[in-house]
Amino acid sequence: MTTSHDQSLSHAGHAHDHGGHRHFGASSSTKWGWALALVLGFMVIECLAGWFFHSLALLSDGIHMFSDAASLAMAGGAAVFAKRRASARRTYGYKRLEVLAAFANALSLLWLSLWIGYEAVDRIRHPVSVDGPWVLLVAILGLAVNLLLLYWLHRGEGEKGLNEKGVIWHVLGDTLSSVAAIAAGAVITWTGWSLVDPLLTFLVVGILILGSFRLLLQTGNILVEGAPQGLDSEAIRRDVLSQPQVAAVHDLHLWSMDGRDLYASAHISTQNGPLSEREISQKLTRMLAERHHLDHITLQVGHCGEIDCTAHCGEP
Questions:
Q1: What is the C-alpha separation between 310 and 136, in angstroms, rounded?
Q2: Which CATH number fits the domain 228-312, given the four candidates 3.40.140.10, 1.20.1250.20, 3.30.70.1350, 3.30.1330.60?
Q3: In what helix (H) or strand (E) does residue 253 lie, and over which residues does it extend?
Q4: What sign does the CA torsion over 37, 43, 48, 49 have?
Q5: φ, ψ dihedrals at 307, nearest 5°
Q6: How far apart are CA 186 and CA 168, in angstroms?
Q7: What is the pLDDT of residues 161-218, one digit of tens each?
Q8: Residue 278, Cβ neighbours under 10 Å: how many?
Q9: Model's pTM, two decimal places?
């Protein structure tokens, strides 16, 4: 029996080039400091404006700004820790922290969206007068701030991880809130119809709830060690069984630590033939990396009965 472990296969068309990943927080601390200062500063302005001018759209945008600051700090801290090397105690390192931060951000975004939706219902039941021109002015400034943040977050090459996507969804929610506040301010200024403020808030809340649910499903699947999106375990099993001298596949596991790198492990039961166990292992490793774009592959190859697998040989 042989064991094969390949962590850095390079091949044409590989969809997971390790050198191409850009992790959130890889830029300078100065950039992070300016981003947080911008978010916190405008958050105070927007919350005060929403309170004084009775605009729920502005107030909700200001509250989202606060959640942005928290998500930026949490995501940045997780990204910094995720770069630490693996140790004897934490053999995978701290990659999973990025997924935990994204999961927490999704939960906070969902809670905030539901709370703002509740406030919008209350505003419809108890209407108040909204100062349209001031709402319009502050909302335009808020949109400019959010677009600047989105530009910063989208800078750089490479695939965005779930940690980054969680923060981007927060800022995108703020951007949508700013657009809704601009529309509400314009309608109130020109028509005096204050009810448009909570009605447009419902539209933003609906979009944010959909985004937060999607992120929760993605991060939740990683946290319960589900097969990563885009990987078909049955297709992988069929491809392995189609190789010469492979008799059965047991204990096939597919998972990801951070939503980017893809891991696979399996026990391969073999038959006698011209290929050695080492050659079978190497051939299977190359095939899985090329066809299914797996990054980390661990295979146990041997005749059934040589290791403690006899009880599992009947499993599909």
A1: 72
A2: 3.30.70.1350
A3: strand 246-256
A4: positive
A5: -125, 175
A6: 27
A7: 666 666 677 677 778 778 888 888 899 889 888 888 888 888 878 877 887 888 888 8
A8: 12
A9: 0.67
